[in-house]
Amino acid sequence: MKAKNNKMKRDKQSLAFYAMIIGSVLLIAALFLPFATATEEYAEHLNRYPKRYLVEEIEMENADGIQISLMKFLRIYYAAAKLEISREVGIACMVILFIFALFAIMTAIFSVCRKPILTILFDILSFAMINLVRWDFQERGVIPSRRYDWGIAAYAVYIGVMIVIAGAVVFLTEKRKQKREQ
Fold this sequence. Notes:
By secondary structure, the chain is mostly helical. It has helices at residues 2-29, 40-48, 70-82, 87-112, 116-139, 152-181, and strands at residues 34-38, 53-55, 60-61, 67-69, 148-150. The strands form two sheets. The protein has a three-stranded antiparallel beta sheet. Strands 2-3 form a two-stranded antiparallel sheet. α1 packs antiparallel against α4 (87-112). The chain starts with a helix and ends with a helix.
């Protein structure tokens, strides 16, 4: 009976570990998934002229502007800062996006290392940074706008954050139960 209970606890802990990993991967994937998606009307316009440049400085064609990831936004803001077009805004956005990416990577690293408290800490920091990005985009009218709506990444981040926290909490409680029983 005791062996069966230990196996169930290990299974719970393993499941929680995998949840932390999956949630962390989702946070990192959000950097490459569409964060902004062109509205139907704007997508039609972009598709009419797919080879024209939407952002000439980074050679981003209209076809590439239908779905824009956070990494593409990073490139856009880098080009804007480099050309001194809204330099301060470009630099601020790059820093915020870079910090989000760093926190998402740290969440994944601590998940792999089975450090639930640090995983939760960096997961919460990732959550705070993505909310700052969303707030900034909304304040400046980037997303939502008549041209763009939120893409899948804007929602995937929240799902990833919740999965990581749930996994880390279960992992931590199971680990503590195991220590008490020894």
